[in-house]
Amino acid sequence: MNSPEVFKGKCRKITEGKVEGEAVVTKDYVNFYLVDPERGTIIEEGHDLEGKKIADKILVFPGDKGSSVVQLDGLYQLAMKNNKPKALVAGELSTVLVSNAIIMEIPLVCDVDEKFYEIIKNGDHIAIDTEEGTISIRAGAC
After folding, report:
1. Residue range 116-129, pLDDT digits in tens
2. How are beta strands 108-110 and 134-138 bridged, if at all?
3. d(CA 104, CA 15)
4. Predicted TM-score (pTM) of this structure
């Protein structure tokens, strides 16, 4: 039985995709080079997701950090090991993040209603439809 939908709102498509999956949420910026490609876990010391898996999850984060080469190499290594995120929900966009999401074919959205960020938590089920421009949450459904 599915959990009830606790949020449905609009989002802006940056790269396309229709995906559903488990949310992994951080208030820290992410450097994809500091994610272990073998396990898909954050290895950055002191990061609030240190040791947590982002592979095959929908990553909700404020934005990226690091150079274009480092970020692309990090995502490339994750993709080669089938450990890249399923989708990205970013608070801020950078040219690096957008171009890397396009190259690595990862759905990326932004401009989500503030209420989304107040409600979302780790383990919630997120559904994203970039063509419709919608994002929804089912609490703890994963």
Report:
1. 999 999 999 999 99
2. unpaired
3. 10
4. 0.94
Which has the closest alpha carbon to 141: 126, 119, 120?
A: 126
Residue positions annotated with a catalytic role: 67
The torsion region of residue 83 among left (phi > 0), alpha (psi -120 to 50) and beta comes to: alpha
The alpha-helical segments, DSSP class H, found in the chain are 68-80, 95-104, 114-119
pLDDT of residue 142: 53
Residue among 142, 134, 139 at smallest CA distance from 120: 139
Q: Indicate if the pLDDT at residue 25 is higher than 50.
A: yes
pLDDT surpassing 60 at residue 65: yes
105 sits in the region (left: phi over 0; alpha: psi -120 to 50; else beta) called left
Locate all alpha helices (DSSP H) within 7-126, ordered by sequence.
68-80, 95-104, 114-119
Domains of the chain: 5-138 (3.50.30.10)
Report the distance separating Cα 6 and Cα 69, nearest Å.
Answer: 38
